[in-house]
Amino acid sequence: MNLPPPLSRLLLGPDPDRHPAIGLTLLVSALYLVNAVQIVAAVSVGYASAVLAPYFLAFMLTGAVLFYGLLRSGLSQRWSDPNLVVAQSIYCAFAVALGYLTVDLHFRGVVLTFMPVILLPGQFALQPRRIRQLTVVMFLLLVGTTIVNWYVNPGEPELVGDILRCTYVTVILVAVCVVAQAVSRTRHDMKLKSEALANALSKVEHMAAHDQLTGLLNRHRMHEVLDKEWHRLQRQTRPTTLVMMDLDHFKRVNDTLGHQAGDEVLKRFATLADTYLRDADVVSRWGGEEFLVLCPDTTAEQAQIALNRLRDQVHVAPFLDSHPALQITFSAGLATLRPSESMASAIERADQTLYQAKEAGRDRFMQSP
User: Fold this and answer.
1) Which residue of 149, 170, 212, 335 is surrounded by the most CB atoms within 10 Å?
2) In angstroms, what is the C-alpha Rg of the chain?
3) Which contiguous run of DSSP H or E holds residue 43?
4) What CATH number has the domain bearing residue 357?
5) Residue 136: its pLDDT value, please?
6) Is 208 inside any structural domain?
7) Tens digits of residue pLDDT in 10-52
8) Range of the domain at 147
C-alpha cells in the first residue's frame, strides 16, 4: 500500500517487513465493510433475509476488527502462522457460507463464486498440504451450507439448482486448489534453490576471505581490512597498532614431527589468538607461521597487554595430544601507525621489529620506535 509515511506507520505499524501482510488484511477488512453496506442495501429492497442479516453483519465486522487488530498489535507474531493466513481463509469461507444463507436465492450463485477466490492468497504463503486442507474445509462448508439452506428455506424449489451450483463451484474450487498447489510448490522450490545458492555463495565468499587451515582472515582479505582502516584514520585521529607474530622454531616442529603436526600447531595457535586477543582485534594468517594483527584504537602498550595474556595461554596450552610435552612460544613486533604513514610502511616496521625480537632471544615482544 503506497501511503504517506505518517499514515503508513499509523495504519501498518513501525515494522516495514510486516506491512504487506497487514496491508492485505486491511484490504480484506475494507471488503468486509463494503459487503456489510451491500447487505444493508439488499435487506432494504428485499434481496436478503432481515433475520440473518444482523448475524452476517456482526460476523463480518468482527472479522474486520479482529484480524487487523491481531496483526497490527503484533500479537499474531507469537503463533506459528504469524500472518494468520489459514485463520483468515477459514473465516472468509464461513463468511461466504453465511452470506449464501442470507441473500436471495437468485444471488447465491454469485456469493458462492467467492469461495475459490479465498484460496488465491494462500498459494504465496502456504505449503501445498495446507492448501489441500483448506480446500477440504471449503468443500465441506459448501455442502453443509447447501444442506442447511434446505432446512432454513424448505419452501424454495431450488433443489436441482442448488446441487448444480454446488457442483459447479466444487469443480472451480478443485481447479483453483490444483493451480494454487502448483504455484506453492514452485515458490517453495525457488525458495530452497535461493537458499542453497545463498549458502553456496556465502561459503565461496568465506573461502575467498579466510585461510583454509586456520580459519583466520587470509592475507588478501587482510589487505582490504587494512585499507578500510587506513581510510578511516584519515578522518579520525586515533592510535592504531599493527602486530606481526611468528611462532618460534616452527621449522623444528615440521622437521621432527611432520607437516601434519605443524598444521595442528598452527590451528591451535590461531584458535588461542582469536580467543585471547581482544574482540576488536583483527587476526589474520599472513603467511607460513606468521600472523598479522590489526589493533584499532589501540596504543602499542595496550596491545602488549593482550599479547601478554595470549602468551600466558600459549605457555600452558597443549598443542599436540600425541606430544603433550611440546612447548610452543612466539615472538611479536609492534608498530603504531604514524601520522600520514601507509599501512605497508607500518607492516614493514612491525616485521623488522619482530626479527629484532627473534634475535634478542625469542618468546618476547618489541615495539618499533
Assistant:
1) 335
2) 36
3) helix 19-44
4) 3.30.70.270
5) 92
6) no
7) 788 888 888 888 888 888 888 888 888 888 888 888 888 888 8
8) 5-203
